[in-house]
Amino acid sequence: MRADVVVIGGGAAGLMAAGTAAERGLRVVLCEPNRRLGRKLRITGKGRCNVTNQCTPQQFMENIPTNSKFLYSSVNAFPPAAAMEFFETLGVPLKTERGRRVFPRSDKADDIADSLAAWTKRNGVTWLHTCAEGILTDDVGVTGVSTPEGNISCGAAILCTGGLSYPGTGSTGAGHRLAAGLGHTIVAPRASLVPLESAAPFCRELSGLSLRNVGLTALEDGKAVYREQGEMLFAHFGVTGPLVLSASAHMRKWGTKEYCLSIDLKPALDEEKLDNRILRDFEKFCNRDFANALDELAPRTLIPVLVELSGIPGDKKVHSVTREQRRELVRLFKGLEIPVTGPRPVAEAIVTAGGFSVKEVNPRTMASKLVPGLYFAGELLDVDGYTGGYNLQIAWATGRCAGRAVTIYREGE
């Protein structure tokens, strides 16, 4: 089989790269073994798909903790505004929510994936339901891609296989192996936007408890590195949920730094107002035991943990609770601490940090500096963003860049 360009991986970056290259009149073959294109894309954002973030390129760069300078050219060439216009043109109306997060109005990630798949088909991309086993080269550069069904002769290949997160969707690290075999350096992949483990025994006791509208602060050696309000969830291993996943992206120095999470259970109340609220409840339940006087302040399953951590005997009558004990209770409500021992495995992460060293990739074209005709796009590059649509924007921008820049060194034979 012959092609000008073979795109390896039919996810967000791969679809964008394939469709863009085909728009230029190139013969493009897309290798994707999954039964549906954009499989991982279809489950992002709990099936809603946070398409991008409605921000300026400068604001975007501020939310890329790893190698943001590498993305300067590609993101300025295809910024969030251009990505939004692109999907609107494909017939997918968008909306912007809190934190400038952009979603399809339908709240259906399938609409994004289906529109991309249809666009590539209209542009003439040929989808082969197969995987790439190797990238073939000679002294000039890329000559083809090998698959279980045979070799595809081509003049260029764009590698878009994703990282190691959600391996069930096909992100198994195959792309790392393909590029490493051609001499590229792989920065050790690690988890980002990932649940966190804790040795605190009460996490297991509270497994399944969801906390809404709480404040979460991530502390690195006692210094705040992240602070936000929203939702989180206790699990048997520790904690997860939107707030925790976001916080994890700011916790990057495992082994050299100590991390802790602090939960503000009542972020709408300062300490004085919370103390007054507790006083009113204590007056209302003045003859109750302390353990039975917090029903209107905390979820029922959380109360035994609060009682134990407060140091106030559970059978003590609330009218006997001292001012100092009450102050300790206020501090506990405003800063329930959870020591963190580390992230969950990378397979459970939303995003993989690490990947191909950007020192070996041309940031203006996404072309390999080592192998002519080889290009990269998406999550397998050593760049990653915070939560909020930034990581998909990386996929759109780098995929668009590679598709626009891909150069054919020879005709497919």
Alpha-beta classification: alpha+beta
Relative helix content: 25-40%
Shape: elongated
**What's the Cα radius of gyration?**
25 Å
Provide a quick synopsis of the model.
With 413 residues, this protein is an alpha+beta fold.
Structure, explained:
The chain is of the alpha+beta class and 413 residues long. The strands form five sheets. It has a seven-stranded antiparallel β-sheet with strand order 17-16-13-14-15-12-18. Strands 6-2-1-10-20 form a five-stranded parallel β-sheet, covered by helices on one side. Strands 3-5-4 form a three-stranded antiparallel β-sheet. It is elongated, with a radius of gyration of 25 Å. The chain has helices at 12-23, 44-47, 57-61, 72-77, 80-89, 109-122, 174-180, 201-205, 242-248, 271-284, 303-310, 323-334, 390-405, and strands spanning 5-8, 28-31, 52-53, 94-96, 101-104, 126-128, 134-137, 142-147, 150-153, 156-159, 186-192, 196-197, 210-220, 223-234, 238-240, 259-264, 336-340, 342-343, 351-356, 374-376.
